[in-house]
């Protein structure tokens, strides 16, 4: 397994460690989040421009360009996912870097999807953890009677949360950052992450690539594939979970959607 210091997700960073992992040790509150977003963007964009000057980039913190739709290689980055948690000096924030490659698999040419995520890294600096597609490990199979823990947004849990929690008999584990929640499934700290109601490609691309490399289930909440480098960066919902419970989760969401008329 890559470098990991196992701590509970979302733990509070002690104030004495305030200056250790962040990009902006000297600023507080919302200004800290804003400055962290800007500084992380600046550093990653500079590195990509230096090392891969011909590649396109889709970033939460940069103006989008239609050029990426015809590019062969597109970096999909979220320089600071969990800005709210970063600004609150918590540890549950992450840095996402994914590479999308045109014609990544022979099947791509025959489908509507011209490319796929081919490599990614997610850093959780507050926990001194980096996960990547090349070295991530596959967890042992989930026992039939294993307790299920469900990662959910600590600030805006989607409406489907309660239906899924109840149907699985799961314990809810609230935490910030899509990357930290997906990493928690990869790390065996929870068994599933379900999100609906809004998100963008950069929120999930890198951690989803790592989850796939670890053999986890990844899809939209209706079971359809998560597609990246689409013209519209909006990618509002997803399920990342241990493969053994994917069918149960998708059918709980489908029943909830059918009876409530909600899609989130
Ligand atoms: N309803 C929504 N609409 C748009 N983005 C959302 C969203 N819910 C969550 N997100 C984004 O998903 C990431 C994880 O959110 P959460 O911690 O609530 O699960 C955050 O990314 P950023 O911090 O990069 O903005 C947040 O902005
Ligand atoms: Mg984000």
TrEMBL record:
Keywords carried by this UniProt record: Magnesium, Metal-binding
Catalysed conversion reaction: adenosine 3',5'-bisphosphate + H2O = AMP + phosphate
Keyword Ligase annotated: no
PROSITE patterns associated with the record: IMP_1
Claim: Metal-binding is one of the keywords in the record: yes
Pfam families: Inositol_P
Residue spans of biased composition, Basic and acidic residues class: 27-38
Amino acid composition bias (Polar residues), ranges on this chain: 1-19
InterPro entries: CysQ/Inositol_MonoPase, Inositol_monoP_metal-BS, Inositol_monophosphatase-like
Disordered: annotated segments: 1-38
PANTHER family: 3'(2'),5'-BISPHOSPHATE NUCLEOTIDASE 1 (PTHR43028)
Protein name, per record: 3'(2'),5-bisphosphonucleoside 3'(2')-phosphohydrolase
Native source species: Demequina litorisediminis
């Amino acid at each position: 397994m890559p470098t990991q210091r196992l701590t509970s997700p979302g733990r509070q960073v002690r104030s004495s460690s305030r200056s250790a992992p962040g990009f902006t040790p000297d600023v507080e509150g919302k200004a800290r989040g804003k400055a962290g977003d800007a500084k992380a963007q600046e550093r990653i964009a500079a590195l990509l421009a230096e090392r891969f000057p011909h590649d396109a980039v889709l970033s939460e913190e940069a103006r989008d360009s239609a050029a990426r739709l015809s590019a062969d290689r597109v970096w999909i980055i979220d320089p600071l996912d969990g800005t709210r948690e970063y600004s609150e000096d918590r540890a549950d924030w992450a840095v996402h870097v994914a590479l999308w490659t045109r014609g990544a698999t022979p099947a791509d040419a025959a489908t509507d999807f011209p490319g796929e995520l081919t490599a990614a890294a997610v850093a959780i600096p507050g926990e001194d953890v980096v996960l990547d597609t090349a070295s991530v490990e596959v967890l042992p199979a989930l026992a039939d009677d294993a307790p299920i823990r469900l990662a959910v947004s600590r600030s805006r849990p989607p409406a489907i949360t309660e239906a899924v929690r109840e149907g699985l008999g799961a314990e809810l584990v609230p935490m910030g950052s899509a990357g930290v929640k997906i990493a928690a499934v990869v790390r065996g700290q929870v068994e599933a992450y379900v999100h609906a109601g809004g998100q963008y490609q950069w929120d999930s691309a890198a951690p989803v690539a790592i989850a796939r490399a670890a053999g986890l289930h990844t899809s939209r909440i209706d079971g359809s594939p998560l597609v990246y480098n689409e013209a519209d960066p909006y990618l509002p919902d997803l399920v990342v979970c241990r493969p053994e419970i994917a069918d149960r989760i998708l059918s709980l969401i489908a029943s909830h959607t059918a009876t409530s008329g909600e899609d989130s």
